[in-house]
Design a protein that fits this description.
Layout lengths: L2 H6 L6 H14 L3 E8 L5 E7 L4 E6 L8 H19 L3 H9 E6 L4 H9 L7 H8 L24 H11 L17 H12 L2 E9 L3 E5 L3 H14 L2 E2 L11 H8 L4 E6 L11 H14 L6
Parallel strand pairs: 3-4, 3-5, 5-8, 6-7
Antiparallel strand pairs: 1-2, 2-4, 6-8
Helix pairs in contact: 3-11, 9-11
Length: about 300
């Protein structure tokens, strides 16, 4: 895949595009390491890209939700731009960046959900169940994984409190909001947490859409400093979650429980899936923010 075609095809991030991106990275970008950190329910790879030699590890993740796949595309763009900067090798700022930091990027946490939202269901043992869960609405706005679990409610923060809300509201496996049988019941969430428990991350950022807002945890001085830098870089506003969004999220768990500085960036404005028209602006914002944000750790 040539450079021009790479940048022209990062949205929507179909499985084929992600495979082509991986081949491009392998062939042209020896500075980037790629690892499979786990498999989805339907055995799709969850890929981690790593760049930088520093001892300070940061983790950026996207596409917990299927129809929020612009988060994945913006992270693919980030990887591409970081490779450009590293290969140029002539700017002191970037030399410092890559010597101080190791950037870990998982563009797609939920590959099955992304495929459902972009292409609809494909033959699998779950096909009949998926069609029933989607109903007349179809899959365009599908958020969950292949068996109807919302991965960003599947982490262990106020999980069992949320199960009471599910029962009251009769939330069942389906397009969105269902949290699963127990924390990290889903292989996708389990894979992310296995990684986080293995590596000493100094910062975790999870991308979602939409709203141009920033949520951060824990509510301490260090995390506030990082969040304010993200606010300045992105133009997004620091806010607080409410309602069902306050239960079971990745950054809820890593920030509130593990006390790792953790930010959620709600990229773009509109309805999910976001229009390709805003991809250039969103991708530039994500690149600008996430390439500068680690310096707040120094």
């Amino acid at each position: 895949m040539k450079k021009s075609s790479l940048l022209n095809k990062i949205y929507p991030p179909t499985e084929h595009l992600r495979e082509e991106f991986g081949k491009y990275i392998e062939k042209y970008c020896p500075d980037v390491s790629a690892f499979t950190v786990g498999k989805s329910i339907l055995s799709r790879s969850i890929t981690l890209y790593r760049i930088g030699e520093g001892k300070t590890n940061v983790l950026y993740v996207g596409a917990h939700h299927g129809s929020e796949h612009m988060t994945a595309s913006s992270l693919l763009y980030l990887i591409y731009k970081l490779v450009e900067k590293k290969r140029a090798g002539k700017y002191k700022k970037w030399q410092k960046f890559f010597s101080e930091f190791c950037v870990n990027v998982i563009p797609v946490v939920n590959p099955d959900g992304v495929e459902l939202a972009i292409n609809g269901p494909s033959p699998s043992p779950l096909l009949e169940r998926q069609l029933k869960m989607a109903g007349e609405e179809g899959f365009l706005h599908w958020q969950a994984n292949a068996r109807g679990v919302d991965l960003n409610h599947n982490y262990d923060y106020r999980f069992y409190e949320y199960k009471k809300i599910e029962r009251e509201r009769e939330i069942l496996p389906g397009r969105t909001l269902y949290s699963g049988e127990y924390p990290e019941s889903e292989p996708e969430a389990s894979a992310i947490m296995r990684l986080i428990r293995t590596i000493d991350f100094s910062l975790i950022v999870s991308l979602h859409s939409q709203g141009e807002e920033i949520y951060y945890y824990p509510k301490d001085e260090r995390s506030e400093k990082i969040a304010k830098k993200a606010e300045k870089l992105s133009g997004y506003l620091i806010s607080d979650t409410s309602g069902t969004a306050s239960y079971g999220g990745l950054c809820d768990y890593t920030g509130r429980v593990m006390k790792i500085p953790s930010l959620t960036l709600e990229i773009g404005r509109g309805s999910n899936p976001l229009s390709a028209v805003i991809l250039p602006e969103v991708s530039q914002t994500v690149y600008k923010t996430l390439s500068e944000l680690p310096f707040a750790l120094l």
